[in-house]
Amino acid sequence: xxxxxxxxxxxxxxxxxxxxxxxxxxxxxxxxxxxxxxxxxxxxxxxxxxxxxxxxxxxxxxxxxxxxxxxxxxxxxxxxxxxxxxxxxxxxxxxxxxxxxxxxxxxxxxxxxxxxxxxxxxxxxxxxxxxxxxxxxxxxxxxxxxxxxxxxxxxxxxxxxxxxxxxxxxxxxxxxxxxxxxxxxxxxxxxxxxxxxxxxxxxxxxxxxxxxxxxxxxxxxxxxxxxxxxxxxxxxxxxxxxxxxxxxxxxxxxxxxxxxxxxxxxxxxxxxxxxxxxxxxxxxxxxxxxxxxxxxxxxxxxxxxxx
Length: 307
Ligand code: ATP
Prior knowledge:
Layout: E1 2-11, E2 14-24, E3 29-33, H1 40-47, E4 55-60, E5 63-64, H2 70-73, E6 76-79, H3 91-101, H4 106-119, H5 135-145, E7 153-157, H6 165-180, E8 184-189, H7 192-198, E9 201-206, E10 209-215, H8 216-221, E11 225-231, H9 236-243, E12 248-254, E13 257-262, H10 265-278, E14 283-289, H11 293-301
Parallel strand pairs: 3-8, 3-9, 6-7, 7-8
Antiparallel strand pairs: 1-2, 1-4, 4-5, 9-10, 11-13, 11-14, 12-13
Helix pairs in contact: 3-4, 5-6
The protein binds adenosine-5'-triphosphate.
Adenosine-5'-triphosphate is lined by residues 11, 14, 16, 34, 36-42, 81, 158, 190.
């Protein structure tokens, strides 16, 4: 559905995109994860035809895309990071306005607007001015506005910024529903939990470069799980036995804190519990940390995603 090839964008001397290439298949729900300033908005703006690249190409549905190509542009719906709705209009009027921009009208538009209001849970407030909506409701309307012309590719640029948990869940449900109907979706965020929960495949972007692009399950499987134990004291024999658990790597964080890194956490836990019990080691705490995209980012860049 989408291919970008060696995309570059400089703002004066600032290289916002430093040569990015990737593909997103038809019907995918693809995550684009990166810290603030990584270049996500710049990338979405170029892909949606709002901004010219300094170099590189964008292909949509196997055709090279230029900003002037209205036919291809119509395939895209973009939910921008900044709200792009009219606060003095009602929710319904906003959706009509965006539909009319794409040449829609009459009963078709009326029906489409009603269906969208329903799916973004704004039917009850449809005839109130958007200025009276909560932050989450405005965000939902911002999403609805991108859907009226029934795009094939939906680009979401940090759509949950400043959104309450209830609206966030509604946005997630709507994204999953649209994707299940066959819409290709690119979900941009700096919240790794969101991307991990929503997207089977992810591109991680940092300083204008794509540092990895793979199935989330593969990225997570490439890192070990961690088991952290707090103990009153760890006798030397117990330490040696823990250290010899097959497939686990032991680190003493302090005299009372032990960390084991392993891939098969269930098997290691069984052995761990047996050793602690046989050696009469008293536990003060037990924590498990599964791999997550935050750790993938740290592993790839040496920095935390949230700085
Ligand atoms: P955020 O989540 O904070 O919006 P982002 O990943 O979307 O971050 P961009 O907004 O694309 O990142 O910005 C990428 C880089 O380009 C940043 O260093 C930013 O300061 C710079 N930049 C973005 N827009 C402009 C502009 N109009 N003029 C100059 N520099 C810009």
